[in-house]
Specification:
The chain has two domains: about 110 residues, NAD(P)-binding Rossmann-like Domain (Rossmann fold, 3-Layer(aba) Sandwich), CATH 3.40.50; about 180 residues, Rossmann fold (3-Layer(aba) Sandwich), CATH 3.40.50.720. Helices cover about 30% and strands about 15% of the residues. The protein has eleven helices and twelve strands. The strands form two sheets. A seven-stranded parallel β-sheet has the order 8-7-6-9-10-11-12, sandwiched between helices. Helix 5 crosses helix 7. It starts with a strand and ends in a 13-residue tail after the last helix. The relative contact order is 0.13.
């Protein structure tokens, strides 16, 4: 059994082991593969039966021409990099990795919010630059400091990550307003309830955190029209998908002060482009799509990838995203 991993570096830059997958056959791992070069992708797949990808595209052209391909494993939750219909037509199951990063992404969301509220990094640099040493005051700060207790967090998308973010927000004394396409009334409490609609969430939230999938109806959801419905001084956080936000509109709102601050772990084009307006926007904190990437989270991803492949080879595939191939 020949197994190829097309872009293994992001999942495992060297601190994890591929042994779990290697037990199933002859393994070749490429750190990176040109993500849209069908001919190079096909060359690297060769006569492998098993292929894993993270962000390398497996187009219909690749899937139909890979001669011995029988299984595709996506090393992520999102599987839009694979033409799942082309795989279905060839009888090839495509599996993904659900739920591995719930705690990590919720933690990163709160880390960005706490940085906005307390500016720990900024004040650490100020101290080391001698600004406290040279201050005439016993205490020194030069940015607003903010408490979370009593404020309202609006969470758009209330799946596992949204719910975990709500749990952490409530631990800081925040109230939670949630919005989701499918509601679960049993999740409502005295401090966590569903908003009647998005307009209520926009109007009442001090902090808005995005945890929804990217669908046509959520693309550009955070835009000039909807920002106008928000409180002055709102904070916006995005650990979901970049295109949910109209970046030009958000940058203008940050620079005008309508939006006090933003924390972005994702942007519309990744890696980020130098002309992205958020790079020069006021009070915008950007991390390079790392919310999911704790070692613990990546180990869970690895363990599930191994389990997915084992289940397929045993004849009962799990986490299949193109039904009809179980």
């Amino acid at each position: 059994m020949r197994i190829v991993i097309l872009d293994g570096y992001t999942e495992n830059p060297g601190d994890l082991s591929w042994d779990g997958i290697e037990q199933f056959g002859e393994l070749t791992v490429y750190d990176r593969t040109p993500r849209e070069d069908d001919e190079e992708i096909l060359r690297r797949i060769g006569e492998a039966e098993i292929v894993f990808t993270n962000k390398t595209l497996l187009s219909a052209n690749v899937i139909t021409r890979a001669p011995k391909l029988i299984y595709i494993g996506v090393l992520a939750t999102g599987y839009n990099v694979v033409d799942v219909e082309a795989a279905r037509r060839r009888g090839i199951p495509v599996t993904n990795i659900p739920s591995y990063g719930t705690g990590a992404v919720a933690q990163h969301t709160m880390a960005m919010l706490l940085e906005i509220c307390n500016q720990v990094g900024h004040h650490d640099r100020a101290v080391k630059e001698g600004r406290w040493e040279n201050s005439i005051d016993f205490c020194f700060w030069d940015t607003p400091l903010m408490e979370l207790s009593g404020k309202t967090m609006g969470i758009i998308g209330f799946g596992r990550i949204g719910q975990e973010t709500a749990r952490l927000a409530r631990a800081f004394g925040m109230n939670v307003l949630a919005w989701a396409r499918h509601r679960r009334p049993e999740l409502e409490t005295e401090t966590c309830r569903y908003a009647a609609d998005l307009d209520e969430l926009f109007a009442r939230s001090d902090v808005i955190s995005l945890h929804c999938p990217l669908f046509p109806e959520t693309e550009g959801l955070i835009c000039k029209k909807n920002i106008a419905k928000m409180k002055d001084g709102v904070i916006i956080l995005n650990t979901a998908r970049g295109p949910i936000i109209n970046e030009k509109d958000l940058a203008e709102a940050l620079n005008s002060g309508k939006v006090y601050a933003a924390g972005m772990d994702v942007v519309s084009t990744e890696p980020i482009k130098g002309d992205t307006p958020l790079l020069t926007a006021r009070n915008c904190f950007i991390t390079p799509h790392i919310a999911w990437a704790s070692k613990e989270s990546r180990q869970r991803l690895m363990d599930t990838a191994v389990a997915n492949l084992g289940a397929f080879l045993a004849g009962h595939p799990e986490n299949v995203v193109n039904p009809g191939n179980e």
